[in-house]
Amino acid sequence: MNVFDLHARVIEDYRDFVRSFFVIADRRVREYVDRALVEEARLWPDCLLQVSPSYARSYTVNELAGRGVVHEEAAAVFRTAEGSSYRLYQHQVEAMELARAGQSYVVTSGTGSGKSLTYFLPIMDSLLRQPPEGDRVAALVVYPMNALVNSQLQALEGLKTAFERRTGRRFPVTFAKYTGETAGPARDELRQHPPQIMLTNYMMAELMLVRPDDRRFLDRFGGGLRFLVFDELHTYRGRQGADVAMLIRRLKERCAAPNLIHVGTSATMVAGRDATPQQRKSTVAEFA
Question: Which of 65, 121, 66 has its CA nearest to residue 95?
Answer without folding.
Answer: 121
